Amino acid sequence: MSQKPVIVAFSLVLVLLASGTAHGALKRCFQCRSRGDLGSCKDQFTFNATTAQQEQGVEAIPCASGWCGKVIEGTGSYKQDDYGMATQRMCLQRGPSDGEERCAYTIWNHSKVYMCFCQGDLCNSASQSQIKFLTLGASLLLSAKRILSL
């Protein structure tokens, strides 16, 4: 019996897991708030679910809606001085009405802010790295080519 179908099926499962489409129903979001240089919520946000547990003020919380957000306040006149800038990451009660992930300027709590909406497990971290998906995809293609040529 050939092992090719088993290896191909296993590869597809790995791709689904890496892309986030096979995650369970429980989605989590990072929750934190920082102002200026105080706190760990601002960008360069380098935490994952494990390292966030060890950082005071940063949590990975369950999110029933599956929609996470990141809000940056004070980007107007404070742009050159980070003191007035605040970054907050949170779970949203619901996503945008069109269901599209995006970042844009909007009015939130009577202030103009830069807000990002995303759907997925811990998606409100810093920008997600596409490199790991490219590396995984290239590895799978090379493996599939080698397996099929056996």
From TrEMBL:
InterPro entries linked: QVR-like (IPR031424), Sleep_regulator (IPR050975)
One term under GO cellular component: side of membrane
Gene name of this polypeptide: LOC117642264
Organism for this UniProt entry: Thrips palmi (Melon thrips)
Coiled coil: none
Keywords: Glycoprotein, GPI-anchor, Lipoprotein, Membrane, Signal, Transmembrane, Transmembrane helix
Chief subcellular location: membrane
PANTHER family linked to this entry: ATILLA, ISOFORM B-RELATED-RELATED, PROTEIN QUIVER
Topological relation to the membrane, as annotated: Lipid-anchor; GPI-anchor
Transmembrane segments: none
Signal sequence bounds: 1-24
Alphabetical list of Pfam families matching this protein: QVR
Compartments, as annotated in UniProt: Membrane
Protein name in the entry: Uncharacterized protein LOC117642264
GO biological processes: regulation of synaptic transmission, cholinergic; sleep
Superkingdom of origin organism: Eukaryota
